[in-house]
Design brief:
It is found in: Nucleus. This protein is α+β, with helices and mostly antiparallel strands and 329 residues long. It has eight helices and 13 strands. It has a five-stranded mixed β-sheet with strand order 9-6-5-4-13. A three-stranded antiparallel β-sheet has the order 1-2-3, with no helix packed on it. A three-stranded mixed β-sheet has the order 8-7-12, with no helix packed on it. The structure holds a DNA duplex (21 and 21 nucleotides).
DNA sequence: AAATCTTCCAACCGCGTTAGA
DNA sequence: GTCTAACGCGGTTGGAAGATT
């Protein structure tokens, strides 16, 4: 936090006189309760307007920008204070996997939360957890253990996990967020997943209709709840909402599971691997052609930190994605 | 108890965008 | 069309508070 700036001068009207120099010295740093009160009273009385005028009219020695920030991030009556709920945390992770660092867009889906608050929360808490989770994942992967972890810190892995899937020549890395209620272990055989991002080549496509459907996927005899997500980024790191997806219905009774090539837009079923998955999503299985290759870590996805959203109109996209919720507790 | 380290988060800064003259 | 001021956003900073040594 910054200390409120002290003035070595005397206030004369709007100005400050320090020595023989007259300046309109603006305050910086922390806001005092008196300043908060002035701004709050002014805003409640007059509402939002030109911030420069607000700063002046409210009798504050602050720049308009500073007033705006203080109001938006702290004084606004509709702000929710306090810790993030698990639902909020989960939603932030989910939205970040789609939107990246577009904090204001993420914040717009969490009523009462500010972009600054979410950004801080992400940088200080979630990002750290994901990194720790990655280390755990890597080390457990190296140890080739299938045992359920008894380490309470394994909950950290609920944040995000990654699975690579092979189909023909293509390797797809799916980023999966686990569901909040899931029990995550170090074994890929019992993970509950909530969404995924997929790497593809530079193909664009429309959003598949199964986005975010919950699927119970059986891997090696163990049931796994998947929730298929949207998104993906190409080799250049440009976000690419693919028509390829991890799982997709290929006829009335079966689902294909795996990776589709960019040429599938004409007939997706051509590119389905031939796994048979029941339509009620209760007993799917993966055969040898699409396999859960490995649980890989955060770093894989985090190449996507330089991920660019390109020309995608994500706002325009959202109405077609019913599963991206707006929290309203 | 004191010193040092770490975490958290309010606030600033700089840059791109927008609106109005 | 150009300029300018204000706005809005994301990245970064820095200091208080808490944790650890």
């Amino acid at each position: 936090m910054r200390k409120p700036e002290q003035f070595a001068g005397e206030k004369v009207g709007k100005n400050f006189v320090a020595g023989n120099k007259v300046t309109t010295k603006l305050r910086k740093g922390l806001w005092s309760p008196e300043e908060d009160e002035k701004l709050m009273n002014y805003m409640l009385k007059n509402g939002q307007g030109c911030w420069t005028d607000i700063a002046t009219n409210a009798g504050l020695q602050r720049c308009g920008k500073s007033c705006r920030l203080r109001w938006i991030n702290y004084l606004r009556p509709d702000l929710k204070r306090g810790a993030f709920s698990p639902q909020e945390e989960h939603l932030i992770i989910h939205l970040h996997s789609i939107l990246g660092n577009r904090w204001s867009q993420i914040a717009s889906r969490l009523p009462g939360r500010t972009d600054n608050e979410i950004k801080n929360f992400w940088n200080s808490t979630i990002k750290k957890r994901l990194k720790v989770g990655n280390n755990i994942t890597k080390s457990s992967s190296n140890n080739s253990t299938d045992e359920t972890s008894s380490d309470p810190s394994s909950n950290i892995m609920e944040a995000a996990m990654f699975i690579s899937m092979h189909d023909h020549d293509h390797l797809t890395t799916m980023c999966m967020e686990s569901s909040m209620t899931s029990t995550i272990t170090t074994s890929p055989s019992s993970m509950h997943m909530n969404s995924m991002l997929m790497n593809d080549h530079d193909h664009l496509g429309h959003l598949p209709p199964l986005l975010q459907n919950n699927m119970n996927l059986e891997i090696n005899g163990t049931s796994n709840l998947f929730n298929v997500g949207m998104g993906g980024y190409d080799d250049c790191g440009v976000l690419d909402v693919p028509y390829m997806m991890g799982m997709m219905g290929n006829d009335d009774t079966n689902l294909g599971c795996g990776v589709m090539d960019g040429d599938v837009n004409a007939n997706p079923t051509n590119y389905m691997v031939d796994n048979k998955i029941s339509t009620n999503f209760n007993h799917q299985f993966i055969d040898g052609k699409v396999k859960v290759e490995e649980v890989v870590g955060f770093d894989n996805h985090w190449a996507g930190e330089s991920l660019k959203l390109g020309e995608w109109d994500l706002e325009g996209l959202f109405p077609s994605i019913p599963s991206i919720p707006y929290l309203d507790f």
